[in-house]
C-alpha cells in the first residue's frame, strides 16, 4: 500500500506525498526498517516519511487518514471482546482526528470490524463531516468483479457495477443484478453473460462472502496484496472520481438513503464520486431475494452498533 501511494498510483503522478506512519511503541524499530525501504525506493514524489507512536504527531494537518490497524480476533475471543478493544482504539483515533487533522480530511477505515470501527471514529470526531468517513468494502467488490470475469472468460475491466451491500463480514451481499459484462464488444446484463442463475444466486455469493477466510486458511495470513490494492482503488476513486456510468462499493453513512436501510450505520452502498464527494446511486430496483439479504446484513450492523454503544458507555 505504502509503495503504491508513494509512487503516485493513488493521488496522481504530479502530487508530492508526505507519509506519516503511526504504530504502537513496540513496533517503532520495525517501522524504522519500513522507512529505510521507502527511502531506498528513491521515489521522486515522496517528500518525507515520518514514523511516530504519537497520535498528535500522526494526525496533525492530515489530508487523508487510512486506519489500517485494529485489534485482531484471537482464538476463543468473543465478538463482544473484539468490539470492546476496537471501541477504545477508534474512539481515540477519532478524537485525535477531530483535534489535529484538517476538517476536510478523508478517513478510510480498514481495520475490522471495519463498518462499526468507522462509525465509532466518525462519532468521536464531531467537527469532521460524517461524509468524510468511509470503510473498505472495495476488496469484496473487487473479489465479486473478478469471480464474474473469470466465469465469463473476460478481463476484470470488462465487468462493472457489481455491488456489495452492508457489512464487511460474511453477511455482506454481493449483488450482480445491475452488473454489466462486456462480451466481444457487447454489454450484457451479468445474468445473461454468465448464463448460470444457480451459481450467481448461490456459490458466487458464498465464495465472495467467505473469501477472506479462504485466504487465511490457505496462507495462514489475512489478505495483504489484494487488500492494499483495494485501499488504493478506494482512495484513488475518492480523489479522482468514478468513471461516467460506473459505480463502486464503499461503506458510507446510511442516514438519508433511499433503500430503507436503518439510519446511523456505516453500510456499504453503490456510490458515484465526483469532486471528492460520494453520492449513493438511487433508483436501482431491488427484488425480494436482494431485499432479504440487504436486511440481514443491516440487522448485524445494528447489533454491532448497539453493542459498541453499550460498551463505550462503560456499562
UniProtKB/TrEMBL annotation:
Q: Give the residues annotated as active site.
A: 168
Q: Which residues bind substrate?
A: 73, 79, 112, 143
Pfam families for this protein = Ldh_1_C, Ldh_1_N
Q: What is its EC number?
A: 1.1.1.37
Name the UniProt key words of this record, in alphabetical order: NAD, Oxidoreductase, Tricarboxylic acid cycle
Give the family from UniProt. Answer: Belongs to the LDH/MDH superfamily. MDH type 2 family.
Name the job this protein performs. Answer: Catalyzes the reduction of aromatic alpha-keto acids in the presence of NADH. Plays essential roles in the malate-aspartate shuttle and the tricarboxylic acid cycle, important in mitochondrial NADH supply for oxidative phosphorylation. Catalyzes the reduction of 2-oxoglutarate to 2-hydroxyglutarate, leading to elevated reactive oxygen species (ROS).
Q: Could you identify this protein by its name?
A: Malate dehydrogenase
Organism equals: Salarias fasciatus
Identify the coding gene.
Answer: mdh1ab
Amino acid at each position: 500500500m505504502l509503495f503504491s501511494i508513494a509512487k503516485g498510483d493513488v493521488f496522481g503522478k504530479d502530487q508530492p506525498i508526505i507519509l506519516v506512519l503511526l504504530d504502537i511503541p513496540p513496533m517503532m524499530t520495525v517501522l524504522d526498517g519500513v522507512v529505510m525501504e521507502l527511502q531506498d525506493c528513491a521515489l521522486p514524489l515522496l517528500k518525507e516519511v515520518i514514523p511516530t507512536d504519537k497520535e498528535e504527531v500522526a494526525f496533525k494537518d492530515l489530508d487523508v487518514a487510512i486506519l489500517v490497524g485494529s485489534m485482531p480476533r484471537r482464538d476463543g475471543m468473543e465478538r463482544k471482546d473484539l468490539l470492546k478493544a476496537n471501541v477504545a482504539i477508534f474512539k481515540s483515533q477519532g478524537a485525535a482526528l477531530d483535534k489535529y487533522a484538517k476538517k476536510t480530511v478523508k478517513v478510510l477505515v480498514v481495520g475490522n470490524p471495519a463498518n462499526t470501527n468507522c462509525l465509532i471514529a466518525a462519532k468521536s470526531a464531531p467537527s469532521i463531516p460524517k461524509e468524510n468517513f468511509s470503510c473498505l468494502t472495495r476488496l469484496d467488490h473487487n473479489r465479486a468483479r473478478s469471480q464474474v470475469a473469470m466465469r465469463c472468460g473476460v478481463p476484470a475491466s470488462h465487468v462493472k457495477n457489481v455491488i456489495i451491500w452492508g457489512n464487511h463480514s460474511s453477511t455482506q451481499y454481493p449483488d450482480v443484478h445491475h452488473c454489466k459484462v462486456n462480451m466481444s464488444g457487447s454489454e450484457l446484463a451479468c445474468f445473461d453473460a454468465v448464463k448460470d442463475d444457480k451459481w450467481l444466486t448461490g456459490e458466487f455469493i458464498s465464495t465472495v462472502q467467505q473469501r477472506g477466510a479462504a485466504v487465511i486458511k490457505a496462507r495462514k495470513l489475512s489478505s495483504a496484496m489484494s487488500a492494499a490494492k483495494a485501499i488504493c482503488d478506494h482512495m484513488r476513486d475518492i480523489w479522482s472520481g468514478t468513471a461516467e456510468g460506473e459505480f463502486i462499493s464503499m461503506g458510507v453513512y446510511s442516514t438519508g438513503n433511499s433503500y430503507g436501510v436503518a439510519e446511523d450505520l456505516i453500510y456499504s452502498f453503490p456510490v458515484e464520486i465526483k469532486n471528492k464527494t460520494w453520492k449513493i446511486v438511487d433508483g436501482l430496483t431491488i427484488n425480494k431475494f436482494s431485499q432479504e439479504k440487504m436486511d440481514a446484513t443491516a440487522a448485524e450492523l445494528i447489533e454491532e452498533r448497539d453493542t459498541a454503544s453499550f460498551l463505550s458507555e462503560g456499562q
